[in-house]
Amino acid sequence: MSVLAIAEHRRGELRPVSLEQLAAGRDLADQLGGELHTAVIGGDVEAFGADLNREGVDAVHTVDIGEEFNHDVYTQVVTQLATELDPTVLLMPNSVNGLDYAPAVANRLDRPLVTDVVDIDAEDGLTATRELYGSKAETTIDVHAEQAAVTIRPAEWPTIETDGDAAIEAFDATLDESAVRSTVKGFEEVGGGDIDITDADVLVSVGRGIEEEENLDIIHDLAEALDATVSGSRPLIDNGWLEKDRQVGQSGKVVTPDVYIAIGISGAVQHVAGMKGSDTIVAINTDPNAPIFDIADYGIQDDLFEVVPALTEQFQ
Amino acid sequence: MKILVTVKEVAAVDDEFEIDGLEIDDRYVTADLNEWDEYAVEEAVQIKEDHDDVEVVTVTVGPSETDETIRQALAKGADRAIRVWDDALDDAGLLDPETKAQVLAAVAAEEEPDLVLTGVQSADDGFGATGVTLADKLDMEWGAVVNDLDFDPEAGVASVHRELEGGVEELTDIETPAVLTIQTGINDPRYASLRGIRQAQSKELTEYALADIGLDASGIESPLEQTSLYEPETEGEATVFEGSAEETATELAELLAEKGVTS
Ligand SMILES: Cc1cc2nc3c(=O)[nH]c(=O)nc-3n(C[C@H](O)[C@H](O)[C@H](O)COP(=O)(O)OP(=O)(O)OC[C@H]3O[C@@H](n4cnc5c(N)ncnc54)[C@H](O)[C@@H]3O)c2cc1C
Questions:
Q1: pLDDT score recorded for residue A192
Q2: In this predicted model, what pLDDT tens digit does every residue of A208-256 receive, in sequence order?
């Protein structure tokens, strides 16, 4: 009855979700009355292993194969680790890389997979909480299986900061090279435009509620009146209406301005990941149930096409 | 060469809605083609336009009510469509990624595609796992969250960018046949032309039951059971300005001025 959490790192650093998993994993292990194991694969496993030795962790397994993430390697190694350690719950991050190997591992282990969970409980069988329809609704799911694989949503659990006294052990995985059919060539930084939205004190951020590219004029007018910088949610960047380096969110920039005005943005988790640290968050949205209002400090539940010009006028 | 694209109809929920048991009441739900699948279809159609003899086939796990949505993909240039549905799937309740992948894999086994494109996730249940599960079932290589694709059919290599967090992309070469999960922004999905919409009506849409693709209906059982559906409690304590647009704008302007925002 144990829990195994697979850490994630990139370019020499453990990603925070690796430590958040330990909080989620410890809770689960307590409910199951078992041990919490964590594992790290590739890179400077010694340093990562030491860093993962946090309070509540019983064992850290280090697998010294490769430098950066490769899903073929991770799939093989995690499958072997889980076969050997036989955890009741296998935790993996619901990150871009997590989603690049967790489904394959679950398939090989013949375990049900529940992704992007925001809460999980093992008191009476495994029950996971997930969000549906872009966070408009939440659902609980009972997992009818003895053992399961779960990916947890980043930034939902705290990171464990206190050191622990776990056993740190090297795990010998055998790699079938012929089954490594992808090669990671490197990384590329996106953006490089001349504007840095992370520097702005005030961001006027616009989402799909703006409907048409022409309508962006009213946003630019507002930004000018406020002496603010324009940023946006992903659909605007996908449409080419704003440059790539103006995207706020998980795959865009993380911003922490004094004031963030979210206009016609629903507040999808990947967007919120990039702006929840803003000092004051203002949302203008017609949908009173839009998840953006959950994290906003101030809200206007009305049509942006009426509110935005009226607001601009106030500053002219 | 054949490209198989998985497409799905998703439910979009109105601003105001009511929950009826484990579902959102039908009155508040509209059906649409999954946003991520739209980009996958476009990517396939663009490859078809760039190479000779490419067939683009869509595959859907869903009931007959989804036909209209599937035809959107045909109208945008897919050649034919396959849809699989069965009472057993209807009864299975919450379809987990594994169950969906099992069905899609059976279709792929018959179609023998050179490339499979799926959306990164579906907008309604958001599991984000069907594509990679499918790849593993087919013993194909894969890549998740692909936002740039350069496919060389002769060399059997897909050079992709995988969009990681924080504005970083991973550049990876993937041996094909492979399953790629397609991220929005990879292309600029076209609107269906009137001609496309007309033509879509006469394109082939094959319906299969599980037995038709060699699957045993009794083997279909989802290990996941949805036990509740509710509106999440709002943790936020947003101060909501009330009144006309002029009134709320004035209040917000005062607040912003207080926060030191001036022109
Ligand atoms: C792997 C991955 C990474 C991602 N990374 C990012 C990211 O970095 N950044 C990001 O933003 N997204 C990201 N996304 C996409 C994200 O899931 C959402 O699709 C996106 O954030 C939605 O943008 P939106 O809020 O502008 O649009 P929608 O969700 O469509 O919301 C539009 C909002 O506008 C409101 N509205 C409509 N009309 C009006 C009006 N007249 N007045 C006022 N309000 C109105 C609606 O009520 C709605 O709430 C990512 C997704 C994935 C899968």
A1: 66
A2: 999 999 999 999 999 999 999 999 999 999 999 999 999 999 999 999 9
Q: Model-level pTM greater than 0.95?
A: yes
Both tokens of A191, joined, read 């953006």
- Residue A255 beta carbon below 6 angstroms from any ligand 1 atom: no
Write the residue in A112, A283, A306 that is nearest to B96 by C-beta.
Answer: A112
SS3 (DSSP) at A297: coil
- Nearest Cα residue to A280 out of B255, B193, B174: B255
Q: Cα separation of A135 and A143, whole Å?
A: 21
User: Does residue A260 register a pLDDT over 80?
Assistant: yes
In Å, how far from its chain's centre is CA A99?
11
| H/E element, B151 | strand B141-152
State the average pLDDT over residues A99-115.
Answer: 98
Answer whether A260's CB lies under 8 Å from A128's CB.
no
Task: Return the amino acid letter for B152.
Answer: D
Residue whose CA is at the smallest distance from ligand 1 atom 11: A233
The owner of tokens 């890179």 is A43
> Residue A191: what pLDDT?
74
**Complex ipTM, two decimals?**
0.96
Q: What is the pLDDT of residue A181?
A: 97
Enumerate the residues of chain B whose CB falls inside 8 A of the CB of residue A313: 249
Residue B210: phi and psi, rounded to 5, are -55, -40
User: Which residues of B fall within a CB distance of 8 Å from A108?
Assistant: 136
- Given its phi and psi angles, is residue B6 left (phi above 0), alpha (psi -120 to 50 degrees) or beta? beta
Q: Say how many C-beta atoms besides its own lie within 10 A of residue B130's C-beta.
A: 28
Distance CA A219, CA A307 (A): 11
E-state strands within chain A: 3-6, 9-10, 13-14, 36-41, 59-63, 89-93, 113-117, 119-121, 126-132, 137-143, 148-152, 167-170, 182-189, 202-206, 229-232, 259-263, 280-284, 298-300
Identify the pLDDT of residue B93.
87
Residue B136 clears pLDDT 90, i.e. is over it: yes
Q: Mark yes or no for CB contact B229/A235 under 8 Å.
A: no
How far does residue B38's CA lie from ligand 1's centre (Å)?
A: 16
In single-letter form, the type of residue at position A41 comes to I
